[in-house]
Design brief:
Elements (H helix, E strand, L loop, with lengths): L1 H21 L11 E5 L4 H12 L6 E4 L31 H13 L3 E6 L3 E4 L5 E2 L5 E2 L28 H6 L5 E3 L5 H16 L4 E4 L7 H9 L17 E4 L19 E3 L1 H14 L20 E3 L19 H13 L4 E6 L40 H12 L5 E6 L4 E6 L3 E6 L5 E6 L5 E4 L6 E2 L2 E2 L3 E4 L4 E6 L7 E5 L5
Parallel strand pairs: 1-2, 1-12, 2-3, 3-8, 8-9, 9-10, 10-11, 11-12
Antiparallel strand pairs: 4-7, 5-6, 13-14, 14-15, 15-22, 16-21, 17-20, 18-19
Helix pairs in contact: 2-3, 7-8, 8-9
Length: about 500
């Protein structure tokens, strides 16, 4: 009996560890390995984009905006989507039928869907009765959300977060006034699990968990462990678990740390975003990026959800790069997709002049669909960085070099660097104010290759620069200081 008593907890621990590891699997199709955040897009537009652009260009998945009903706020700021009022699947992006159709269509072409889910809170205070995008009503000031239903008994007592080093305040008080759900409450847990289960039934591959830091890891573990397996009708294997990546802002000195969550699923590595921005803004030399990753204090690669910017920090001042600094942004994104670290997500934004700005909308406040020019770029208020040639071709680079390591790092002791990815890829960067002209080891087989940054291989020809690699793998690499792009990238699939 003593041996059996010892064995049972060990078996339970092993099973829980297996579940936790499974929740780090994004369930990518083929060699694809990049997620794009189509921020505030409509479900029908995402379905079209999966079929017409994302699958052909090798994207692995889409992070979508919150899917459940939210309050209607004056001017329709983007953040109203983060003020839920019920778990009905109806937002400005579409209704449940639209969402289900989108998930099916994207899965059918091998593009996975990850939903931004709001488990921490409901809407904040609203003058009088709040009305939702699905017609539900609530009185947030009284913590009354009858469409769920939730009452005041389902929330933590109201308090403000005034001390970010106080665990109680961070996890039980109200983040920017949002009514803080009690995830230890059985009724709340039941509602949240049912919500996630419903999304899984519809075919999603996983979740981005908003404000995870503001919920106790033990409560999240209970919720994750009790969510159903992925739906095999959508091409997932038996017993597959949802991919989970959690928003935990941790600069390395937080009382509530990312290490409390990284065994439950991946964690957003915000320091990656800040440090890569600092480097390509010229505030840190590129040569130091040779040790990029865990040596910089980042999470282990398979636990880190990495990005140059996200929908929040692209709106902040500071080191983080966004689409408004396009040359440096494309360089940072190319490094992000070329260096073998992290679970990569690229941002696809709409244009903004102020932090609260709504997505592109018509006079009736309906979100409008992106429109495209002859080169496929967006034209009507949508930025669509994922459609920039320099970015989607680097998604192809990342696919081509998947499974290879980094070798043959070269730098000039400053802001010119280059490296190989096995024998499959080579990339070089010039962030100096003078030209890069070097003969470098590319690690590629002899031949002529198309630089996928300046152009693309089409019908056996290159629309941009071409580079000839000799029998020993060497090639002359040139990137002018004043060139449109500060990157050159070659890979095996771009051989002419």
């Amino acid at each position: 009996m003593a041996k059996l008593a010892l064995f049972i907890p060990l078996l339970t621990a092993c099973l829980m560890a297996t579940v936790a590891r499974a929740q780090h699997n994004p369930h990518w199709w083929g060699n694809r390995n990049t997620i794009v955040h189509l921020f505030e897009w409509k479900w029908s537009d995402i379905a079209n984009e999966c079929e017409n652009f994302l699958a052909p260009q090798g994207y692995a998945g889409v992070q979508v905006s919150p899917v459940n009903e939210n309050i209607i706020s004056a001017g329709r700021p983007w953040w109203e989507r983060y003020q839920p009022i019920s778990y009905k699947l109806i937002t400005r992006s579409g209704n449940e039928l639209d969402f289900a159709s989108m998930v099916r269509r994207c899965n059918d072409v091998g593009v996975r869907i990850y939903v931004d889910v709001l488990l921490n809170h409901m809407s904040g205070d609203f003058e009088g009765t709040a009305v939702g995008t699905g017609g539900s009503v609530a009185e947030p000031s009284k913590k009354s959300f009858p469409a769920v239903p939730y009452t005041a008994a389902d929330f933590h007592p109201s308090c403000d977060i005034t001390d970010w080093n106080d665990r109680f305040q961070v996890q039980q008080c109200e983040l920017v006034g949002l009514k803080d759900l009690d995830q230890g409450n059985n009724w709340v847990r039941t509602q949240l699990i049912a919500f996630l289960d419903h999304l899984i039934q519809l075919g999603v591959a996983g979740f981005r968990v908003d404000a995870a830091k503001h919920m106790a890891a033990s409560d999240l573990k209970f919720i994750y462990d009790n969510v159903r397996d992925l739906n095999t009708d959508h091409g997932f294997p038996n017993n597959a678990r949802a991919f989970i990546f959690q928003e935990v802002i941790d600069h390395g000195h937080e009382t509530v740390s990312r290490e409390e969550y990284n065994q439950l699923g991946a964690v957003t590595e915000f320091r990656f975003s800040e440090e890569i921005g600092k480097a390509f803004r010229g505030h840190n030399t590129l040569k130091w990026l040779q040790s990029w990753g865990t040596a910089w204090g980042f999470l282990p690669s398979e636990q880190a959800l990495t990005f140059v910017d996200n929908h929040d920090n692209q709106r902040d001042s500071g080191e983080v790069l966004n689409y408004k600094s396009p040359k440096q942004y494309k360089m940072a994104t190319a490094f992000h997709l070329a260096y073998p670290y992290g679970i990569s997500r690229v941002m696809s934004s709409f244009g903004f002049d102020d932090r609260d700005q709504a997505p592109p909308q018509d006079a009736s406040e309906n979100i409008i669909s992106p429109q495209f020019d002859v080169e496929g770029a967006c034209t009507n208020g949508w930025i669509c960085e994922h459609r920039w040639r320099q970015i989607y071709n680097m998604v192809g680079f990342k696919n081509a070099v998947r499974g290879t390591g980094l070798s043959n790092w070269w730098d000039n002791g400053d802001n010119q660097v280059a490296f190989c990815r096995g024998s499959k890829g080579f990339i070089a960067f010039n962030n100096n104010n003078y030209d890069l002209n070097e003969t470098l080891q590319t690690c590629l087989p002899a031949g002529t290759y198309c630089d996928v940054i300046s152009g693309a291989k089409l019908n056996g020809a290159c629309a941009g620069k071409s580079v000839t690699v000799d029998g020993n793998g060497y090639a002359h690499i040139s990137i002018g200081a004043n060139e449109f792009d500060g990157v050159l990238a070659l890979h095996a699939d771009a051989k002419l």
